[in-house]
Amino acid sequence: MPTSAEIAFTTENARSSMVTLTDAAGAPVDGAMRSDGSSWIPNAQLKYSTRYTAKVAAIGADGKETAKTVTFTTMDRPGGFASVSSQLGDDRVYGVGMPVVVNFGRDVHQDHRANVEKRLFVASEPVQEGVWHWFNGHEVHYRPREYWKAGTKLSIRLATGGLPFGGGSYGAADVTVRASIGDKFVMTIDNATKTMSVTRNDQVVKTMPVSLGKPSAPSSSGNMIVMVKNEWEWFDSSSYGVPVDSTDGYRTRVSWPQRLTWGGQYIHAAPWSVGDQGRRNVSHGCTNISMGNADWLWHQTRIGDPVIVKGTERGLDWGDGWTDWNRSWEEYVKGSALPRPANPTGPSAGPSGAPSDGSAQTGPVRLAAVLAAPRRTW
């Protein structure tokens, strides 16, 4: 049995039910029901090569208990592990557009993605609807329907320790993260006016002139996210196949860079183009602003803040950065490996911490077979 085992059961005519799980030494294992009531999940990965006993007790309308127990032994420690990591860190504050980015050290096989997705839990306070989207076999993102509400608290559990990924690969460990969302801080860049409008909580706080990509290297239009911030970086055209000593080559130390795409588009200070900012586009695709504006902006933004660029000659390529907001909600949900619930009540179907309660009915309690295995959804 994988160490990602869950306890699944069904009842009839039960007023309430309860699951207890103990290891070979009789030590209790903490856990909780999924919010949809489909199974009970341990709060942490089970141990390898260990015998467990699960008991499910159901109480009927007459107060009488019906119980079933099952014992199982978890598998030996496997040889093929895949790392699991998140771009979010504990006690960090992010922008309202921040997706939950999860990376796997090996590709999750197509026929295992639904089962893996069911073990990725995001809880938000206040509750906001959201969904997972697979960009490829080794990267899956989670975003809410709308931007996160300012001040949201996030609790994330990637319950992947011992979970089969396919091809003899298993998740190396569980990952937990607690983070929060800051103010709604949005930058909107308009090529028609060559200006950036900066808003905080929907109020304009600053406007500034910009210079975007010249016709031979246009900036991308679309919905982007600040992914990386550094006080300075070396920008080197040779990393994109353009020799430094060529007509269009360069190697420049750039101040206050904020990365928007993996292809190399940034917002950054460009004192050499101040005379062009607000008038014409002369960059290699980045958003050029003055040294003073770049300094101010860099000290206001967070990773995850949205950047919206409008009216340039090219659109944003899907996957060139955290492009989660560049598709409608209807299109985004198609990237999930799971069917959408008819009435979603929260970010994901995570453990609720509450017992499984049902309406009291007449008749004897029936308790169906107890299963100790990951539940696969197809």
UniProtKB/TrEMBL annotation:
Pathway: Cell wall biogenesis; peptidoglycan biosynthesis; Glycan biosynthesis
UniProt domain L,D-TPase catalytic: residue ranges: 185-310
Low complexity: compositionally biased ranges: 343-367
Annotated spans, Disordered: 336-367
Top-level taxon: Bacteria
Any one Gene Ontology BP term: peptidoglycan-protein cross-linking
Pfam family of the protein (one): Big_10
GO cellular component: extracellular region
Transmembrane annotation, as ranges: none
Keyword terms of this UniProt record: Acyltransferase, Cell membrane, Cell shape, Cell wall biogenesis/degradation, Lipoprotein, Membrane, Palmitate, Peptidoglycan synthesis, Signal, Transferase
Active-site residues (renumbered): 268 (proton donor/acceptor), 286 (nucleophile)
Name of the protein this chain belongs to: L,D-TPase catalytic domain-containing protein
Species this protein is from: Planosporangium mesophilum
Record lineage: Bacteria, Bacillati, Actinomycetota, Actinomycetes, Micromonosporales
